[in-house]
Amino acid sequence: MAYSLTFMFRLILLSLGLTANNSLNLKEDQTSTGHGDGICKSRLEIYGYECQEHHVTTEDGYILSIQRVPNGRSGTGKDATTKVPVLLQHGVLMDGITWLLSSPDKSLGYILADSGYDVWIANSRGTKYSLRHMFLSPSNSAYWEWSWDQLVAYDLPAVVEYVYNQTRNQKIHYIGHSLGTLMALASFCEHRLLDMIRSAALLCPIAFLDQITSSIARASANAFVGEVSYWLGLHEFNIIGRSGDELLLQVCNQPGVNCYDLITSFTGRNCCLNSSSVRVFLDHEPQPTAMKNMIHMAQMIRRGTIAKYDYDSYEENMKHYGQAHPPAYNMSNIPNNFPLFLSYGGRDALSDSNDVRHLLKMLKCHHKTKLKVRFLQNYAHGDFVMAVNAKQLVYDPLISFLNLF
Ligand SMILES: *[C@@H]1O[C@H](CO)[C@@H](O)[C@H](O)[C@H]1NC(C)=O
Ligand SMILES: *[C@@H]1O[C@H](CO)[C@@H](O)[C@H](O)[C@H]1NC(C)=O
Ligand SMILES: *[C@@H]1O[C@H](CO)[C@@H](O)[C@H](O)[C@H]1NC(C)=O
């Protein structure tokens, strides 16, 4: 059964490719994009980009890989010391490939390098290229003892500080997708890292989650919160592994969840995907994460709050936070003059437009010249990183915004 569900999942994902463009060749070898080779080899060097592999160790011992693309495709602006660094942070169940899913003229990672930026691509703990730890292995349950609170407290500061040091203390433009936006918002509202960051562009902002329309995400949240201790006992969450199979078994039996169109039930109906990008996505993603991270997001979906992980126990919360309830992240505390670019989609089932408007309400005192909002009626969650027209609709305006700061 486990095998058949995993198989079904891949088949459904493939069918998405077929609907995006009927030319998908099912016989093509899965290794065609060389996903065993690392991000530099498989997605950058094949197109003629110089790429460097870097590593940074977080305060709690995770060894994260970072890819740097210092120059454009033609080597434009080589050795220029004035290049401004841009850090790209992916979301949950994804990794740095997020920014390199399409061809060099269509994906943001390449476009930024070709526009003269010094591009740095982060990979969060637990994803394929950031699996190492100083003394734990992913087969230890302790390895998976974290939620996005720790991505905010440890991963993001380690990566930002590393890039800042490597670029001789140049302030960084931050670009996040999905959970990569919450990592930034949560840091900024605690006034962390702001001295090293120039501006932030947030694609599919995730902050409030209670209006989420993704039937799969909502049903999953109910399953997780309903049986927390059972799910926590699995430690690692992997949609193409045992935990994913068990979840799909529960969730797909619920009324209103259409598992035959899994991606659409999860992300919303993407308007503009190309089957080649979908195939790159399938070759590399999805990535595992900590079960605790999934449960933390489930708490946000169910409660409508943005707070630290709730241990659901007076003693445990007292031990970790010194108070009975987990402390909230207050989005209104983000400094009003910090440059923010937000882009969200009308069909996004994860970053729902009502939730984004709730976030914008919290930012209502933000200086008008420092906040640019771009709404795309037809876009869903995947379009922001994979759509064939994302350059025109999102990245060109985004880069104009960066150029202001
Ligand atoms: C999809 O991407 C491939 C590879 O980059 C390209 O050859 C093809 O023209 C694209 N199709 C569309 C509809 O953009
Ligand atoms: C960055 O540089 C500072 C000051 O030299 C140093 O204390 C810190 O450990 C460095 N951080 C990283 C992640 O390289
Ligand atoms: C959040 O911060 C704002 C502005 O700093 C403040 O007015 C508001 O009371 C805070 N909200 C909560 C729930 O603490």
Automatic annotation (TrEMBL):
SUPFAM superfamilies: alpha/beta-Hydrolases
Keywords of this entry: Hydrolase, Lipid degradation, Lipid metabolism, Signal
Ranges where the Partial AB-hydrolase lipase domain occurs: 44-102
InterPro entries: AB_hydrolase_fold, AB_hydrolase_lipase, Lipase_euk
GO BP term, pick one: lipid catabolic process
Span of the signal peptide: 1-23
Gene3D superfamilies: alpha/beta hydrolase
Transmembrane segments: none
Molecular function in Gene Ontology: hydrolase activity, acting on ester bonds
Residues at the active site: 178 (nucleophile), 348 (charge relay system), 381 (charge relay system)
Membership in a protein family: Belongs to the AB hydrolase superfamily. Lipase family.
Protein name, as recorded: Lipase
Organism: Ananas comosus (Pineapple)
Lineage: Eukaryota, Viridiplantae, Streptophyta, Embryophyta, Tracheophyta
